[in-house]
Write a structure and sequence with these properties.
By secondary structure, this protein is of the alpha/beta class. The chain has 20 helices and 15 strands. β11 and β12 form a beta hairpin. Bound molecules: iron/sulfur cluster and FE4-S3 cluster.
Length: 548
């Protein structure tokens, strides 16, 4: 075994990747991810102490947030980026230690190796091999520590998007540091770790609310929008990932250049925001969920900008057309950094590249509809409530989450197709590509697939549920006619799940498989306390959900 990672749904054999990631992550990079996380824990110990004397470092908050995000599945495969990060982490850790001491904080009790280790870059691999996931021997403690850590990774991703737009909630950073430090504490009992996992759910709600505010205050509230999935005859740039600030920068800089801009995968919901509708060259969405990029980037012909996960190791045939930015990285792929003077990012190289490329090859025609965030759905509330009262809508199915490569995910297409015609799917995240191009019709003008947006917009689905609970004057969110059949893949889905649990949602079904990082005992707690379940087959599951 040269690595161990089980943080995503595609973990090898359903237990963990041990030689190389199914995602393409090499063992040395996987181990450096672990070493970076370990070092963040040391930084957290000092920053928590520094906070007590008002000397907490904002730089540390940002560093921890970005570093957690870098280790999310399919974000960064670049060894050099991690070696540099760990070097910077060691310097930062010592600066915070000194600042904490200077401010009068008592740091004498901080003796954990994560807070004191040091090494030259050449020794990082050896150190990394000692501090990975398996260093925690008890499988239940390991399971809870990792569940918490993966929740933090998702939280960090959303916090970073909000941060980009100038929205910050320092209590989220405080919690991240407290939770990271707690994963070093061998004295914590399992129920204390469970309590921290639940608390992560609270901050999951907070961070998604913060990002919702950041996005809607900056770009307007999403509107019902038909998005073209065909192509035009100009060269194009394809933008993927979740970062709307990058989206804005690219649209501004491509104005009047003759270059069209298309979204891919999780960037599709950018079309729903009023602020982006004014760009005539923002023409549509190309392709599907992240895992089909090896074919779709090929036929797109133009350059591709990856603003966040999910990046698949690029094939040589199009690698020179891929650009990364933010936390994303891949060895040999050009990275666009933010300008040092703080004036944003310069995408001119990508634009010049696009001018030399052929227009995209058309792979489909038509349009998809979306923009059903909470503001839109709540503006239709009367219609929705009437449809429920009259029995025209019998049940809502929250099918948010992620898509992935596994053949077993055909389940979700079949599930959407076979659902009774008096049901409505509420979705968010890239899971929707399994059914958002099907002809599922509408109920009295309400489409049967309501797409709220990106995975973080699962928050919108929670807001809608809470509002319906109020309208129907129910005591418990679980009395609503809403079922949860969620597809997961990476760690943002983990924080979405924890947020839903925190809001009191029960009986969530997770598929296509349950996380490998849940030990049998931890899974038992989730089943007994929250009614979490897996999926079986479409026919039986629909019967179960419909209460037949
Ligand atoms: Fe394996 Fe997923 Fe970890 Fe990649 S992120 S190494 S596929 S468990
Ligand atoms: Fe998709 Fe990666 Fe998770 Fe944001 S793009 S939902 S998998």
């Amino acid at each position: 075994m040269s690595m161990f990672c089980y943080q995503c749904q595609e973990a090898a054999k359903g237990t963990g990747c041990t030689m190389r990631g199914v995602c393409g992550k090499t063992s040395d990079v996987a181990n450096l991810h672990d070493l970076l996380i370990y070092t963040l824990k040391g930084i957290s110990l000092y920053n928590m102490k520094a906070r007590e004397t008002g000397a907490a470092s904002k730089e540390a908050d940002k560093f921890i947030m970005e570093s957690l995000f870098m280790t999310i599945t399919n974000a960064n495969f670049d060894r050099k980026a991690f070696v540099e990060r760990i070097q910077n982490a060691l310097v930062l850790r010592d600066e915070i230690k000194n600042a904490a001491a200077k401010s009068g904080a008592d740091i004498s009790g901080i003796t954990h190796d994560a807070a004191v280790w040091s090494a030259q870059a050449e020794q990082f691999d050896a150190k990394a091999a000692q501090v990975g996931v398996l260093a925690t021997e008890n499988e239940d403690v390991r399971s809870l520590r990792e569940l918490l850590t993966y929740g933090l990774k998702g939280m960090a991703a959303y916090a970073k998007h909000a941060y980009q737009l100038g929205y910050v909630n320092s209590s989220i950073f405080e919690f991240m540091e407290k939770a990271l430090a707690a994963t070093l504490d061998d004295t914590l009992a399992a129920d204390q770790l469970v309590a921290l996992v639940m608390e992560a759910g609270k901050y999951g709600v907070d961070v998604m609310a913060l990002l919702d505010k950041a996005n809607t205050s900056t770009y307007g509230s999403p509107e019902i929008t038909k998005v073209n999935i065909g192509v035009r005859n100009n060269p194009g740039i394809l933008i993927s990932g979740h970062d709307l600030k990058d989206m804005e920068g690219l649209l501004e800089q491509t104005k009047g250049t003759g270059i069209d801009v298309y979204t891919h995968s999780e960037m599709l919901p950018a079309h729903y925001y009023p602020a982006f509708k004014k760009y005539d060259h923002f023409v549509g969405n190309y392709g599907n969920a992240w895992w089909k990029q090896d074919k779709e980037f090929e036929s797109f012909n133009g350059p591709i900008l990856m603003t966040t996960n999910c990046l698949v190791p690029p094939k040589d045939s199009y690698k020179d057309r891929v650009y990364t930015t933010g936390v994303v990285g891949f060895d040999g792929v050009k990275h666009i950094d933010a300008k040092e003077d703080g004036t944003g990012k310069d995408f001119s190289e990508i634009i010049e590249h696009a001018k030399k490329c052929q227009p995209p090859v058309e792979i489909e025609r038509g349009e998809i509809i979306g923009g059903f965030a909470h503001s839109t759905v709540l503006s239709l509330a009367d219609k929705v409530v009437d449809a429920v009262k009259s029995g025209a809508i019998k049940k809502f199915f929250v099918m948010a989450g992620c898509d992935g490569r596994m053949k077993s995910r055909d389940y979700y297409t079949e599930f959407a197709q076979k659902l009774p015609k008096d049901t409505v799917i509420l979705t968010a995240g890239c899971a929707k590509y399994r059914y958002n191009k099907l002809e599922l019709g509408d109920i009295g003008g309400i489409p049967r697939v309501l797409d709220a947006g990106q995975c973080n917009d699962s928050y919108s689905l929670a807001v809608i549920a809470l509002k319906l609970k109020e309208v129907f004057q129910l005591n418990d969110i679980n009395e609503l006619p809403i079922a949860y059949n969620i597809a997961w893949y990476e760690q943002k889905a983990v924080i979405v799940l924890l947020a839903l649990l925190y809001l009191g949602v029960k009986n969530i079904h997770l598929g296509p498989t349950l996380p490998a990082f849940l030990s049998p005992n931890v899974a038992k707690v989730l089943v007994e306390s929250f009614g979490i379940g897996g999926v079986t087959n479409v026919d039986d599951d629909i019967k179960m959900f419909m209460g037949e």
